[in-house]
Amino acid sequence: xxxxxxxxxxxxxxxxxxxxxxxxxxxxxxxxxxxxxxxxxxxxxxxxxxxxxxxxxxxxxxxxxxxxxxxxxxxxxxxxxxxxxxxxxxxxxxxxxxxxxxxxxxxxxxxxxxxxxxxxxxxxxxxxxxxxxxxxxxxxxxxxxxxxxxxxxxxxxxxxxxxxxxxxxxxxxxxxxxxxxxxxxxxxxxxxxxxxxxxxxxxxxxxxxxxxxxxxxxxxxxxxxxxxxxxxxxxxxxxxxxxxxx
Length: 246
Prior knowledge:
The chain is of the alpha/beta class. It has one domain (3-245): 3-Layer(aba) Sandwich (Rossmann fold). 41% of the residues lie in helices and 16% in strands. It is built from 10 helices and 7 strands. It has helices at residues 26-32, 57-64, 79-90, 118-130, 132-144, 150-161, 169-181, 208-212, 226-229, 231-245; strands spanning 3-6, 10-15, 36-41, 72-77, 95-101, 193-198, 216-219. The chain has a 7-stranded mixed sheet with strand order 1-3-2-4-5-6-7. The protein is globular and about 45 Å long. The two termini are 31 Å apart.
């Protein structure tokens, strides 16, 4: 199943991150489905959906959009946040608000920009060819790094991901290329953006909050997966935005 739907209310579409699948949101959606009609999407090449031919955000969006609501709140976590930002640029009429969780307009570090060191992304790409499973394991560990519940978070992530087929090798490579190349820093958003960041996140440095200003909410004890370590706080954040936007 490439899109799982559950709950009632306003449409809420959720895009997962690199190496993951729609199952990553299962525990959080137990709360969200009380307020929203949730659409949990497996991105191209993940969770059993066929991969795209290229590392191209538009091609990835074209693969999933026909199955999704004409208008919704769109939530993107990590890599998924890049797709939400691109969707808003292409189809602002479909976006009530962008809900951007532990993501960035530009993931690599650059001059006067905090991010993932380029050599770290390059190492992931190199290791992916040698041992995809080990590379994903390492990525999971980095995601939970710093969280007070790191071991529990990783255990839960693995359990949720195991419900779906493993990601395809070409999709993993394409996803890393997107993380490495996409840059939306100089693009003005046509629809409202709301960001949820974890202060302990080692993939999306908290320094990003300074660039985002009032659009950013920071959870002081969360890492890269705040909806797993702090689901109640993440839900409160989301509901407060919907109340403001509606």
